[in-house]
Specification:
rod-shaped, Rossmann fold, Exonuc_VII_L, 13 strands, five-stranded parallel sheet, OB fold (Dihydrolipoamide Acetyltransferase, E2P), 12 helices, cytoplasm, hydrolase, alpha/beta
């Protein structure tokens, strides 16, 4: 994107100048100013105000009017859409003192400033709203609104505990929508007053009964819409602390989208309407079946791919020569084995023959060196009876007994003494 810089000495376009940076030389545009104002106003959110109705013009089902402050020195314009008007008391009129929940609106094109009313009630609620805001601040400081302490709802509760008014639209809405999503859903319903003096004690008693039931996995407190006065019971501190102390997850389904009792902040889940509560508590059987079907299809595809891959791998292995004709490897090895065996036999035979020849040689050498060979040539060995070989004639004086060993045995003899040498 190309950015065009203004020529030197030329002021930038008004739309490019932020209002806070404007000057006589570089003014901003009205559109830019109005856009800035609208962005600032949009951050204000909704506020509760008290005043007197000084204008009430009904046009096209919508109301355009004004509220004047009690001092008479300030007023605001408001608009009230027909959808909101249907939920307000029918007796609102000029001159009434009211408490209204308003949200600021600023129109860029016209530069008009007005407020949109989301709730309006006769005066008298101001003190109650103040007390509720103090209680809201106290509970928030204690951590009862902390998201970390909120419990997760079960995916598919075995039994849903329902606290609601007897034969109420809220009860029918929760049952109908829950059964449409999961036909086999089970409820344990306890009817309680949903407004008036009996609302808080009966709701607390029902809550404790359902919380003590081991089969109940989630508890829904449901009521249709109403004005702030009728919904005060669901902002009662005793009820809020009982909900915070419950061990079973609690769903708040009080009123319509714009209704906001303190129970919505303390409960583990806030549903905008009883119908929304039914949709949040149980899953949609059609969606779950579709998910199961998708998972089955994915598993079937993955399994088919795996089997196909393994078959391909097996075919590749079987196509190798060693597996295509495994007996060839055995034949080659058998020939090698036969050759090695033959070589082994030859080596052993040669070694045996060499050993035999060597043995014969040794035997011949032994025979040549053996005294027996000498004796076989006619020689004899004389030795005393003590076994001493006679090597000197003096060892056998006359009369001495000697043993004479010849080639074929030995015999005893007696010495006649030394024999004189011939020629001596």
């Amino acid at each position: 994107m190309t950015t065009f810089e203004p020529a030197p000495g030329t002021a930038p376009p008004p739309d490019s100048v932020h209002p806070r940076d404007s000057s006589p030389e570089t003014p901003t545009s009205i559109s830019r100013l109005n856009e800035t104002i609208r962005g600032f106003v949009a951050n204000w959110g909704s506020v509760w105000v008290e005043g007197e109705i000084t204008g009430w013009n009904l046009r096209g089902g919508h109301v355009f009017g004004r509220l004047k402050d009690a001092s008479g020195e300030a007023l605001i314009s408001f608009r009230l859409w027909s959808s909101t008007l249907q939920r307000l008391p029918d007796d609102l009129k000029l001159g009434d003192r009211v408490v209204a929940c308003v949200k600021s609106d600023y129109f860029v094109k016209s530069g008009d400033f007005t407020f949109t009313v989301s709730a309006m009630r006769h005066t008298g609620l101001g003190d109650q709203l103040e007390r509720l805001e103090r209680l809201r601040a106290q509970l928030r400081a204690e951590g009862l609104f902390d998201p970390a302490r909120k419990r997760r709802l079960p995916f598919l509760p075995h039994v849903i505990g329902l606290i609601t008014g007897e034969r109420s639209d809220a009860e029918r809405d929760v049952h109908r929508n829950a059964e449409l999503r999961w036909p086999h859903v089970r409820f344990r319903t306890i009817h309680a007053a949903v407004q008036g003096d009996r609302c808080v004690p009966e709701t607390i008693a029902a809550l404790r009964t359902l919380d003590a039931d081991p089969e109940v996995d989630v508890i829904v407190i449901a009521r249709g819409g109403g004005d702030p006065q009728t919904l005060l019971g669901f902002s009662d501190e005793k009820l809020l602390r009982a909900v915070a102390a419950a061990t079973t997850p609690v769903v708040s389904a009080i009123g319509h989208e714009n209704d906001h009792p303190l129970l919505d902040d303390v409960a583990d889940l806030r549903a905008s309407t009883p119908t929304d509560a039914a949709k949040r508590v149980v899953p949609d059987v059609a969606e779950q079946r579709a998910i199961v079907q998708q998972l089955r299809s994915r598993a079937r595809t993955r399994l088919t791919q795996r089997i196909s891959h393994d078959i391909s791998q097996l075919d590749q292995l079987r196509s190798r020569p060693v597996l295509r004709a495994p007996e060839g490897m055995l034949v080659a090895r058998s020939h090698e084995l036969f050759a090695l065996t033959a070589r082994g036999c030859d080596v052993v035979t040669r070694r045996v023959h060499e050993g035999e020849r060597r043995l014969a040689q040794l035997q011949a050498s032994l025979r040549a060196l053996s005294p027996g060979a000498t004796l076989s040539r006619g020689y004899a060995i004389a030795h005393t009876t003590g076994g001493v070989i006679v090597r000197d004639a003096a060892q056998a004086p006359a009369g001495a007994a000697v043993v004479v060993t010849v080639a074929e045995g030995s015999f005893a003899a007696r010495s006649e003494g030394p024999v004189a040498e011939q020629g001596a």
